[in-house]
Amino acid sequence: MTAVPAPVATVSDSPGGSGGAPDTGGRTGGSFLAKAALVTALLSVAGSLLGLVRDQALAHFFGAGTDTDAFLVAWTVPEVAATLLIEDGLAFFLVPAFSLALARRADSPSADPVQELVRASLPRMALWFTGTAALLIAAAPYLVAVLAPGLPDPQLAVDCTRLTATCALTFGLTGYCSAALRAHQRFVAPATVYVAYNAAIIAALFALAVPLGVRAAAAGVAVGGVLMVVVQAPSLWRQLRRPYRPGPATTSGPGSEPAKVLQTAIIWTVLLFALCRQSQVLIERFLASSLPAGAISHLNYAQKVAQMPMALSLMICTVTFPVVARALAMGEKERARDRVERDVVLAGCVVLVGAAAVVAAAHPLIELLFQRGAFTSRDTATTASVMRVYALGLLGHTLVGALARAHFSVARTTWIPLFAMFVGVVTTAGIGFLTVGTWGVHGIAGANATGICVSALLLLRGLGPHTVPVRTRAVLGQLGRLTLAAGGSALLGAVVAEGVARPALAVLASFTAVTVSFVLLGLLLGVRPWTTVLRSVGRKLRHVR
Fold it and tell me: Do 226 and 169 touch, CB atoms closer than 8 A?
């Protein structure tokens, strides 16, 4: 099928045409994907920057002490819910399900497959989300006791958990809306959810931190979850209310039930994978609760900053995930393979240059972002050193996110991602228990990096003819060259950062040195993204001449 580049307007959430044919089938060309990725990345960066402001406000008001630790235990609930319901879990089976329903529209069945899917799935899921939220609110004391048995003030953590537990409902509805809109090639509204969410938490902190203490942040989580649904609901409503005009009767017909798209086994494999992946955070919080006060906070701040390059790199895969799922639904495995290989290498390129920058400028970066109010210079030194250890696993985190999408895009049951993640979690737990007594928070961060890299290698090895037949050796070769370029640029950036006294200038100089040296080393090593760009520029220049 020849892809037709879409105009700029198609990136927005404005309603399109109607009828029996798939309304987004042509939006798979490079032009549309580039524009969609750019819009998504810009909004995601805005959300991430607001997330940094949120963490800065939390550090300013409460530092890295007992109150912050109590909130971060409660923060485990929205962290797990975001992975299960927004970023990974629901998206991994709902995007392929909606993509398949949109592809079935080409057969012009008597009933709209998309609306059938919504009627069959949304009411039941909403009921499950509501019940889960109520259960978490009731079981908050027991949950806190399990997550952080050594916490100095468990009651404060219980109060915060009861507020954050509402996200089981709001995040579930948010994830459903996001998956449906992305399958329809609508990316703007889903990309704004974290802007609304973090803005609500920041506003709650500044308005309520004095009367409520750290409970204000938990209240912001509850309000922010509602806003995440509100910013997407109008766009999804416009997509679902568009008239559907069935064509002549075909073999698809009403007999093609939506249940075949959302099989129970598929749902369980996806949710168990996402829960297993997020359990790394639970292991960290459990191990850190036995360390001195502030350990959980240091891990949290280090992880939040270190993972920003990963979040940016996965925007590429988020935009192309519906394209891969649609290609596999149409039996175009080679097209899906080429897309996945390009995405993995490009995402690796983005995350590795980001990881090199984070490692090189760790201390001045943390000092610039957090060292004010109750956040001391000692907190800065500990957080920066932990962040350097976390950064060693950033490529693994990106590969897990990208490769899991490739596995689940086939819209049928596969246990490989769950097995790979389980082995990684066992590795994380084992190394963490062995090293936490000697190395403290650094041992926990190292265990996280090792475990996620093990999972990434198993996921890459597990791709094959039954999923997406990726050429593993070629992909590993490109990633190896990128890793060498990142290592060299990180060393140069660290030297530059050490020679500048002021934190802001040190970060700027170090980031510049890392970026320039990464590009030059990539060219020297013949990394694909750079050679592809050079060929493209050469063609443009020849065309101009």
Answer: no
Tell me how far apart the alpha carbons of residues 461 and 154 are, in angstroms, rounded to a whole number: 43
- Nearest alpha carbon to residue 388 among 424, 363, 352: 363
DSSP letters spanning 284-338:
HHHHHTTSSTTHHHHHHHHHHHHTHHHHHHHHHHHHHHHHHHHHHHTT-HHHHHH
- The burial of 196, by beta-carbon neighbours within 10 Å (0-12 exposed, 13-18 middle, 19 or more buried), is given as buried
Question: Measuring CA to CA, how many Å separate 326 from each of 28, 102, 322?
Answer: 9, 9, 6
DSSP 15-80: ----SSS-TTTTTTSHHHHHHHHHHHHHHHHHHHHHHHHHHHHHHHHHTTSHHHHHHHHHHHHHHH
pLDDT for 195: 93
Among 359, 394, 388, 383, smallest CA distance to 489 is for 359
414 vs 406: CA distance, rounded Å: 11
Residues 405 and 317 sit within 8 Å (Cβ to Cβ): yes
- For residue 87, the 8-state DSSP code is I
User: CA 286, CA 428: separation in Å to the nearest integer?
Assistant: 12
Q: Find the length of the chain.
A: 545
- The radius of gyration of the chain's CA atoms, rounded to the nearest angstrom, is 23
CA angle 300, 301, 302 (to 5 degrees): 90
Cα 209–chain centre separation:
29
H-helix segments, 440-527: 441-462, 472-498, 503-525
- pTM here is 0.71
Half-sphere exposure of 476 (CA within 13 A, CB side): 9
Q: 10-residue block means of pLDDT along the chain (545 residues)?
A: 34 40 46 67 81 86 83 89 82 79 71 83 92 95 86 88 95 91 83 92 93 93 95 89 63 44 67 84 84 83 85 76 74 82 88 94 91 84 93 93 82 82 94 92 93 93 79 89 94 93 93 93 80 53 55
End-to-end CA distance of the chain: 32
CA 73 to CA 399: how far, in whole Å? 27
Contacts of 479 (CB under 8 A, 6+ apart): 344, 345, 348, 395, 399
Distance of CA 287 to the CA centre of its chain: 24
Alpha carbon distance 120, 103 (integer Å)? 18
3-state helix, strand, coil in the chain (%, to 5): 80, 0, 20
At residue 93, φ and ψ (nearest 5 deg) are -115, -20
**Are 395 and 81 contacting, i.e. CB atoms less than 8 angstroms apart?**
no
Inter-axis angle of helices 233-240 and 113-138, nearest 10: 150
Nearest to 55 by CA among 379, 317, 345: 379
- What pLDDT is recorded for position 185? 77
Q: Are 209 and 216 contacting, i.e. CB atoms less than 8 angstroms apart? A: yes
